[in-house]
Design goal:
The structure holds 2 protein chains of 2 kinds.
Chain A: H1 8-16, H2 20-42, H3 45-61, H4 73-89, H5 92-103, H6 112-121, H7 124-131, H8 135-146, H9 151-158, H10 162-183
Helix pairs in contact in A: 1-2, 2-3, 2-4, 3-4, 7-10, 8-9, 8-10, 9-10
Chain B: H1 8-19, H2 25-37, H3 39-56, H4 64-76, E1 79-81, E2 100-102, H5 122-128, H6 140-151, E3 157-162, E4 169-174, E5 179-183, E6 194-202, E7 205-213, E8 218-222, E9 229-236, E10 247-252
Classes of the chains: A mainly alpha, B alpha+beta.
C-alpha cells in the first residue's frame, strides 16, 4: 500500500497493525498543524513538543479512539492537542505565569494577546469568516479557544454574564460553520 | 447517566464551550455523561470540533526532531486494544470489558523472535513470541503451496473455525515456521465495501493479522507459532483497528 496515497482512515488501520510508517505519514500530514497549535497555546517550545509527542504516541497506542465516521483525523488530533495544551496551561505552574501576565494588562485589553495569536494562526478565509461573526461571538470564541479560558473566565474578563458567553460560543461556532461551508473551507481535507 | 444538576437545555448550551475545552471539570463530566446518551449532542460536538480544527489550521512542516522522540517513545510503550474475539459462548459475553494488551511488533525475519534485537523489556519479550502476520494469497498456486507446506509440517497446528450456528466451518493451519492459511472458500462473498478481517489470539494478546477482501478464497498469512486461536470478522473497508463485530467464525489451533 502506498501510504502517501492512503486516506486518513486507511492510515489508522495501518497504525493499528503496528505500521510505524503509517504513523510517520500521519505525522507528516498533521504534525505541523498539531505542533503549531500546541506552540501557539502553550508558548513554550519544550512543553509544546512534549504535547506533540504525547498526541502521536497516544494515536499509536489507541488508534481505535479515532472514529472516521465522526470527523476528520486532523480535527481529532487538533482537539486532542487543544485539550492537552489547555490542561497544561491550567496547571499550577502555567497558572502562575498567566497570573503574572494578567497582572500586566487591563480588563479592557483582555483579549489583545489572544487576537494576536489568532492573527498568527488562522488561515485567511477562516479569519474572514471569524471576522464576519458578531463581536460578542467572536470575542467569546477567541478567548476560549486561543486564550484557553473557560467560558466563566472569559465572561469575567469580558464583563459579560456567564450564560451569555456560553451561548455565544455555541452560536458563534454554528455561525462559523455555516460561513466555512459557504466558502468551502471545511472541504480542504 | 445524565447529571441531574443540569437540565438538557443547560447541557446543550454547554456543548460549544465543551468542544473548545472551555468548561469547568464538573461541567465537563456532566457533558461527557450526556454525550454518551445523546447521539445528536455528540454530532454537534464533532461539528464544533471540525470548526475548531479550521481555526487551528496553519501550514508548515512537522518538526523532524519531534518525530525522533515519538519513535523512541513507541519502542518503550506497550499498547492496549479493547477487542478480543470470542472463543466460545460459554466464556460469557465479556468482550466490551476485555482489554487485551498488545505490544508493538518489530518487523523482521519471519521466524519468531529472530529479528528482535532489543529484548530488555518484558513486554518486548512477549512480543518475541508473537511476530507480525499479514499477507494474502497472490494466486491459487501460492495458496496451494502454503497448504502443502503446512500440512506437510508434523509440528503444524490446525483448527476449525466455526460459526455460532455451526453452519460455517473454515479450516486453518499454521506451520512451526509461522506460515499459515485460512480456507475461506466456504464463506459467503461480502457486499461491496465490506471485507473479512483475520485476527490472531495468543493468550491475552490479540492482533489484526490482515484484511482479506470480500471474496471467499484460501488466504495465506504469516505469523509466529504462538497463536492459540484465529477469528474472522466482517468489517467495513478498509478494515478496523479493533472490532465490535461478532466473529463470523472462530476456533482454536492445536
Amino acid at each position: 500500500m502506498n501510504l502517501q496515497e492512503s486516506s486518513d482512515a486507511q492510515l489508522i488501520v495501518q497504525i493499528g497493525r503496528y505500521e510505524q510508517a503509517a504513523l510517520a505519514e500521519a505525522y507528516r500530514r498533521h504534525g505541523g498543524s498539531v505542533a503549531a497549535l500546541a506552540q501557539r497555546l502553550i508558548r513554550r517550545p519544550d512543553m509544546a513538543e512534549e504535547v506533540v509527542q504525547e498526541i502521536f504516541v497516544r494515536l499509536w497506542n489507541s488508534p481505535e479512539r479515532f472514529d472516521p465516521d465522526r470527523g476528520s483525523l486532523r480535527a481529532f488530533l487538533l482537539s486532542q492537542t487543544h485539550g492537552r495544551s489547555i490542561d497544561l496551561i491550567r496547571s499550577e505552574e502555567a497558572r502562575k505565569r498567566r497570573e503574572e501576565r494578567d497582572h500586566q494588562r487591563t480588563v479592557d485589553a483582555g483579549y489583545d494577546l489572544e487576537h494576536e495569536v489568532m492573527d498568527l494562526a488562522v488561515a485567511g478565509r477562516v479569519k474572514d469568516a471569524l471576522k464576519d461573526l458578531p463581536e460578542g461571538e467572536r470575542s467569546a470564541i477567541v478567548m476560549a479557544y486561543f486564550g484557553g479560558y473557560t467560558y466563566r473566565e472569559a465572561a469575567e474578563i469580558l464583563g459579560e454574564p456567564e450564560g451569555t458567553v456560553k451561548s455565544r460560543i455555541r452560536s458563534g461556532l454554528k455561525n462559523l460553520r455555516g460561513s466555512l461551508v459557504d466558502v468551502g473551507a471545511e472541504s480542504r481535507d | 447517566m445524565t447529571d441531574a444538576r443540569f437540565s438538557t437545555d443547560e447541557l446543550d448550551e454547554l456543548l460549544g464551550a465543551y468542544a473548545l475545552d472551555a468548561v469547568d471539570p464538573d461541567e465537563r463530566q456532566a457533558v461527557e455523561d450526556y454525550l454518551r446518551e445523546n447521539p445528536r449532542a455528540r454530532a454537534e460536538v464533532e461539528e464544533h470540533r471540525e470548526v475548531a480544527a479550521q481555526l487551528a489550521f496553519v501550514g508548515g512542516d512537522a518538526p523532524a526532531h519531534v518525530w525522533s522522540a515519538i519513535r523512541t517513545a513507541l519502542d518503550e510503550t506497550p499498547r492496549e486494544i479493547s477487542w478480543m474475539p470470542h472463543l466460545a459462548d460459554e466464556e460469557g459475553d465479556d468482550r466490551d470489558e476485555t482489554v487485551a494488551p498488545v505490544v508493538p511488533i518489530r518487523r523482521g525475519p519471519l521466524r519468531a523472535g529472530v529479528g528482535l534485537a532489543v529484548a530488555t523489556a518484558a513486554a518486548i519479550l512477549v512480543a518475541a513470541g508473537f511476530a507480525v502476520a499479514l499477507g494474502q494469497s497472490d494466486d491459487a498456486s501460492s495458496a496451494e503451496q502454503a497448504i502443502v507446506a503446512v500440512d506437510g509440517d508434523p509440528e503444524a497446528l490446525h483448527g476449525s473455525l466455526v460459526a455460532d450456528d455451526g453452519d460455517l466451518v473454515v479450516e486453518a493451519g499454521l506451520s512451526a515456521d509461522g506460515l499459515g492459511y485460512v480456507d475461506g472458500s466456504a464463506l459467503p462473498a461480502l457486499e461491496e465495501g465490506r471485507t473479512y478481517q483475520l485476527w490472531g489470539v495468543s493468550g491475552d494478546l490479540v492482533i489484526s493479522l490482515g484484511v482479506l477482501g470480500a471474496e471467499p478464497e484460501v488466504w495465506v498469512f504469516e505469523a509466529a507459532d504462538s497463536i492459540d486461536a484465529l477469528a474472522l470478522t466482517d468489517e467495513a473497508l478498509p478494515g478496523v483497528v479493533s472490532s465490535d463485530q461478532p466473529a463470523v467464525v472462530v476456533g482454536e489451533l492445536a
